[in-house]
Amino acid sequence: MTSPIWVAIDTPDIERAQAVARKVQRHVGGIKLGLEFFSANGRQGIRKMAAIGIPIFLDLKLHDIPNTVAKAVQALRPLNPAILTVHAAGGRAMMEDAKAAAPAGTKVIGVTVLTSLDASDLAAAGVTGSPHDQVLRLTAAAREAGLDGVVCSGDEVAAAHKLWPEGFFVVPGVRPANSDASDQKRIVTPRQALDDGASILVVGRPITLAGDPDQAVRAIEATL
What is the pTM of this model? Predict the structure, then answer.
């Protein structure tokens, strides 16, 4: 059975990224590579990581006019990522075009509300209601646009799953019990996230900064 744990490798250093990926590859579902890695290493860097033989979650959170996002996704097609993110706030047409441009096997996922944001952050941006309200609004929009699922925090995944039972739910900001929250404001334990409907769990620093990343993964798996 494929592990629901995906490791976020947030570093511009490709040799470090490869080292972490090789250490954890036997016990994780895949690895998440985001803007930091992509900006430093580009498509060639993604290819080098994929050559390790591990599924790639390309977390670029694309957000632009529909035509631009569609062309960006087309440019990424040769990488054939397992998962690709766009911002659900980009609107229905943008999400529809992103999904249409993606490879058939790629899950296109809508980012709802970043786990670094809370109600005061949303209010400052002019968004009414709580993060929970906004996540559900954007989850409904992503479903209507034909995406495969959404990214949301563990605080909202149960309600989002109830709204979209067949959706694919990516939960970041997951922290094992007694670990440092870092810059995340809305966090849950891995077990709670899965119980509430998460499809995959994204875990970064508790694994990548551990003395033995593979052991850290296995310790988290033991709680599941």
Answer: 0.92
